[in-house]
Design goal:
Layout lengths: L1 H22 L1 E5 L14 E6 L11 E6 L4 E9 L4 E4 L5 E3 L2 E2 L13 H6 L3 E4 L4 E3 L6 E4 L4 E4 L4 E5 L17 E2 L3 E5 L5
Parallel strand pairs: 8-10
Antiparallel strand pairs: 1-2, 2-14, 3-4, 3-14, 4-12, 5-6, 5-11, 6-7, 8-9, 12-13
Length: 191
């Protein structure tokens, strides 16, 4: 009899774990430098499953499936359905005609301290046509596209906190993330 109870207990624990992972919480690993300094490459973070995307707010960090890149990505939610965004080349955002305050963006208009300190990346800087050599691990253009974007119903606009090295809604052929592609919202980060 005790073996039966142990097996039943293990089966219940396994079922509960699967249910939690599929319906409530999951872990995602950051794979790029686009969210520096908020999130670092290799960092593992917890996310709540998104069941009601209409509850998301500007500034939330979301996990989504990029059909264009065929991978899971982590970015900051900047625009919600109905928003009109004007993005400047330095990454500054104007939301519905007002400057959108983003205290988490620390490298607006220039290279972040992480580039100088890490010595892990190879970057091309917009402006003067010179290469900034740090290593051969990554090769990125340090500038961002600009323009106006009107977020359609059922879609979201996302950007990385590391504006000068983020491949995000500004760059994509289809700039908006569909609500159905959103997987999770990052749980509050503690440093």
């Amino acid at each position: 009899m005790p073996l039966t109870y142990i097996l039943i207990s293990l089966a219940l624990i396994a079922a509960l774990t699967v249910t939690i992972r599929q319906q409530i919480l999951f872990v995602v690993q950051v794979t790029s430098i686009s969210m520096l300094p908020t999130l670092k490459p290799g960092q593992r973070i917890w996310a709540w499953r998104i069941h009601r995307p209409e509850k998301l707010q500007r500034g939330d960090i979301v996990v989504f499936t990029s059909n264009l890149h065929e991978k899971t990505m982590v970015k900051r939610l900047i625009g919600i359905p109905g928003d009109i965004l004007h993005v400047h080349p330095d990454g500054a955002v104007f939301l519905n005609g007002e400057k959108f305050e983003e205290p988490y963006v620390h490298n607006e208009g220039g290279l972040s301290d992480e580039y100088e300190m890490s010595k892990k990346y190879s970057l091309a800087i917009c402006g003067p046509a010179e290469a900034y050599e740090i290593s051969k691990k990554y090769s990125l253009a340090i500038c961002g596209p600009s323009g106006a974007f009107e977020v359609p119903e059922g879609h979201f606009f996302v950007m990385g906190d590391n504006r000068q090295a983020s491949h995000d809604s500004r760059n994509w052929r289809e700039p908006y993330v569909e609500a159905g592609d959103l997987q999770g919202k990052i749980i509050k980060l503690y440093r």
